[in-house]
Amino acid sequence: MKRRDIFLLILLLPCAAAIVLFGFDLLPISDEVLQSLLRETVPRLAAGGYLLIFMCLKGFSESFHPKWRPLHLLWALPCFAVAVVNFPFSALISGKAVIERADLLWLFLLKCLGIALLEESFFRALLVPLLREKRGDLFAVLLSAALFGAMHLLNLISGNVGAVLLQVGYTFLLGCMFAVMLLYTGNVWLCVLVHFLFDIGGTIVTDLGRGPFQDTLFWILTAVAGALCAVHIVVTFVRLHKKNFKESSQNE
C-alpha cells in the first residue's frame, strides 16, 4: 500500500468520528442554535476537507490549482450578482427580519464554507470532468446539475414538499451555472466563493434570526439577476461548445 493511501486511511478515522459525533448530536449542548450549527458545520467541513485532500492526492486537483485571470473575475460578475441579491437586505433594513445570534456568526460562516467546499469539490471539481470526458460538455453540465438538484430531495424529511421542490428547481439552475463557470474558468474556487456567498444570504436569517426575509424587492432582484445570468451562461456555453467542436475537428 502506498504512503498516500495509508495517510488517507488514517485521516479517514478522525473525519468519520467528527461526522458521527456532531452529526448525531452526541455532545451534551443545551444551546439549540449552537447545536444545530455544529451539526450542519462540522460534518461538512470534515467531509469537504477529506474530499479535497483525497482529490489532490489522487490526481483530480487541476481545478484547485487554476491560473487566476482578471478576465475570469469580470466574466463571473453576473454569477456574483445572483449570490449578492440572495442577501435579505430589504427585510433586514426594514426590520421585518432580524439577526438575533450575531455571536454565532463565525460558526455560521464556517457552515456556509463547509457546504460550498464539499458540494463544489464533488459535483463540480470531480463529477463535471468525469462526465465531460465520457459524453461531452452538455451531458456534464446537465447531469451534474440534475444530481446536484436531486440531492436536495433529502430535505423532504422536513415535510415541506413545496419548499423542497422549489429548492430542487433552483439548485438545478445553480448547478448549471456552477458547471459552466468551471468549464469556462477552470477554477473551482470561484464556484466555491459564489456558492459560499449565496448560502450566506439565503440562510443567515433562518439560522441566526427570525422573520420573513423574501419580500417583494427580494424576488424582483432575484428574477432580474437570474434572467441576466441565465442569458450570460447560455451564451458562454454555446461559445465554448463551438470552440471545442472547432478544435476537435482540426485535430481529426
Q: What key phrases describe this protein's structure?
A:
252 residues; mainly alpha; 10 helices; 77% helix; 2% strand
Question: Could you describe the 3D structure shown?
Answer:
Helix content is 77%, strand content 2%. It is globular, with a radius of gyration of 19 Å. Helix 6 (105-135) packs across helix 8 and helix 8 (161-185) packs antiparallel against helix 9. It has one domain (64-251). It is an all-alpha fold. The protein has helices at 3-23, 32-57, 70-75, 77-84, 89-94, 105-135, 137-151, 161-185, 188-208, 216-251; strands spanning 98-99, 209-210. The mean pLDDT is 91. The relative contact order is 0.14. Strands 1-2 form a two-stranded antiparallel ribbon. It contains ten helices and two strands.
